[in-house]
Write a structure and sequence with these properties.
Elements lengths: L1 H28 L8 H6 L2 H9 L1 H18 L6 H30 L5 H41 L1
Length: about 160
């Protein structure tokens, strides 16, 4: 159990590092920014700033998942801390859906020639976030019942 928790924590760290590196690297190779200066890329593109702000719930979600796996490794899965982390994961997934929806509206109202790619990526991100939110709700309910049972056993 401890090995699989450590493995999953390493996977979560790699996902976070790769996502962060991609967010810093991708604007430099994007078609309209290919020959732009650093200032033009990062300070004249409001959608890029929005994407960076919208990534905060994603990284928070990864951190909370890392914490839940840590609780699992310490045999503290059935605790209030674990329940709080799952609740935060659910809220982060829902906020990602909201950020993506606003981003889709910005893309649709903009004058881009390639809206289909952005809309499709938004749909994929939304689908993944819905799955994560649903799983977090399910695990949260199971954990709430287990925490109540555990607290009743301790008081008896």
């Amino acid at each position: 159990m401890k090995r699989s928790s450590i493995f999953l924590q390493v996977v979560i760290m790699l996902i976070g590092i790769c996502a962060f590196a991609f967010m810093l690297w991708e604007p430099h190779i994007e078609g309209r920014n290919a020959h732009s200066t650093f200032f033009e890329i990062y300070f004249k593109d409001p959608f890029l700033a929005y994407a960076y702000i919208a990534s905060i719930p994603f990284f928070t979600l990864l951190y909370q998942a890392f914490k839940v796996l840590g609780y699992s490794r310490q045999n503290k899965v059935f605790s209030q801390d674990s329940l709080k982390a799952l609740r935060t994961i659910r809220y982060c997934a829902i906020s990602i859906i909201g950020f993506v929806a606003v981003g889709e509206i910005i893309i649709m109202l903009g004058n881009s020639d390639d809206r289909a790619g952005g809309v499709f990526m938004g749909i994929l991100i939304t689908f993944g976030s819905v799955v994560i939110a649903a799983a977090a709700v399910k695990f949260e309910r199971i954990l709430e019942k287990a925490v109540v049972i555990k607290s009743n056993d301790l008081t008896v």
